[in-house]
Here is the input.
Amino acid sequence: MRTRAPTGDGALKVLLETNAVDLLVTDIGLADDVTGWDVAEAFRTSRPMAPVIYASGGPNNDARQVPGIVFLSKPVGISRLLGACRSLVKGVEVDTARFSSTRRG
Here is the structure.
């Protein structure tokens, strides 16, 4: 099941109303005062090891380095998104450099 929320506040409401979310894909900058970081932290409150994919057009200088997350730099192609989703859902350790255009030295 795919669920979409146009704002951070809307995403928080979806997370409160359902336990059917298995993987979260969120932009960091959302259309209100709630950030993608906030949404992911709320998501992981009840599911501490749930996979999260963050996307942003900005630099990856505030990425939270926690297990089960991937940071994707925009623009994100469907093959990069699907590859990251598959790896996270399978519980495979994700090589973020493979999925992110922000490579670390």
Q: What stands out?
A: The mean pLDDT is 80. The first helix runs from residue 8 to 17.
